[in-house]
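Troubleshooting: if your tokenizer reports a length mismatch, compare your output against this known-good record of 298 residues.
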Amino acid sequence: MSRKENTNQMGEKIAANKQDVIFLHIAVMLFGLAGVVAQFVKVPAIMVALGRVISSSLMLLAIVLVKKDKLRLNCGKDYALIILTGIVMAVHWTTFFQSIKVSTVAIGAITFSTFPLFLTFLEPLVFHERICAGNIVKTILLLAGVMITIPEFSLDNDMTVGIMWGMICSLTYAVMTLANRYFSERYVGRVICLYEQGTAAVVLLPSLLWVQAQWRPTDILGVAFTGIICTAFAYSLYVTAQKGVKAQTAGIISGMETVYGILYALIFLGEVPAIREIVGGVVILGVALCSSIWIKET
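Known-good structure output:
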């Protein structure tokens, strides 16, 4: 191979890498937009979650059919596990939207970022791995960040209640992360997401019978946007772009979701984070960023 051809290939590789990084940022920016859009939707949080998973499931199904992905899973165990993960996802999205509705987008986004706290202990337990001392230190720092963010230990305080919902959301995301670690080695990402989103839709569907909701056209559009654009499209874009960059880079960019969410809330909702939220958020995001930088490539 000549030097010129080698130079051209290197240039194409760098250009492709830059494109993947841009696509990752676009995907994460769309992830962060979901919470802000949900604030314009006036129906209860469980209805927002239901609408999101229904619309995203339909979009993902269309993508999977176009791509002609294999839908059949390998064994009964995988069906059972992915259904359980879908149930957890239903709780995850409901508690996320409930968190931002009773408090602010910043509170929901910051507390969601604490999921590594739960992963520190759950991952070694599930995959029979040793708990790293460094991860315990990070967990303590994450917990400190949460404690700083809590304004007072009272259920009469909306911010505190929002943090509690956010922590449940964070725990469920950690469980989903562990399940997806197992599934990602066996199936295409969008197929996994389709099963999980579809199961969540079925689980949340009965809520239509007991939850009163007056749907406005803006509510329908907002929920559809979070499902189709902020979930199905963004997730597909993220998975595609992630294959072209290092895990460290993808992890750091993913950590920007909280930052984007807070910026959107400031611009579109006029939500200015309190000093306590900023300090706690810096601690939590700092730990998450360091975890992404120090992660070992496999």
